[in-house]
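Z., the sequence and structure:
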Amino acid sequence: MKKRRKLKKKRILILFLFLISILILGGIEIMKKENNTSKQTNTSSKKNMEKKEEEKIKNTDKSLEKAPKNAKEFDALSDGEYLTEKGYTLTIKNKIAKIEGNIIANKTYKLPTDYQPENPYQKITTERCNNCIDKTAYEQFKLMQSDAIALGLNIYISSGYRSYQYQVNLYNKYVATSGVVGADTYSSRPGYSEHQTGLCFDLNSIDDSFKDTPEGKWVHENAYRYGFIIRFPKDSEKYTGYQYESWHLRYVGEELAKKLYQNNEYISLEEYYGITSSYE
């Protein structure tokens, strides 16, 4: 009896060890397959990344004509794609220039005479309207304004959308007092004003005193959080063609605004994209 029991236990132990061996070998095979799968996945991902890089290089190497250097060159261009000095693709469609979907309007890039914001917060029925700016831009401003109010600050839009014809009269008024050269440093010629895009606006006093107010300082430090930039930053006249305007905000979206706000200062769209702002 005792010998039988020992034999039985021995058989059970052998069977147990056999099963364990099978499980171990099976686990090793599974790990090998997983490693192979992982290697294949990594190889595939690497190939995809290399493919994307190759496509990126091909796109960069495309023989695109260079972006215009001034308004005269822009006027002579047909709709199509052009390459900026920083390697960005400038797209012109229906005589409207865009980079990464952002409308470009400055001394080089003119808007069509009849251009109006595509999606205004309020229907445009007049030549000038503070609530007729782009819907998203206006909603972001209201959010910014609400946060400012919570801090005891008062910011408001003093000048929003302006039509081509309104800009004609405004610019001519400035020329009458400052001359063409003087007016060109702080006012846009008709068709070259961002106000016509509905993506920008002027705040409060619309003068240099704004930068020294609590509101001006807060706007400078926080506008980018809401997708706005100081459109004509300090010491950027060589890029923008305009003097520093602490009150003039442009909506570009939070992602780009964060890139353009560095070390407590703003970078102009011209400098960032590698484009010009020049009438001639």
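The CA atoms of residues 197 and 266 lie 21 Å apart. Confidence is low (pLDDT under 50) at residues 41-59.

Let me know what you think.
H.
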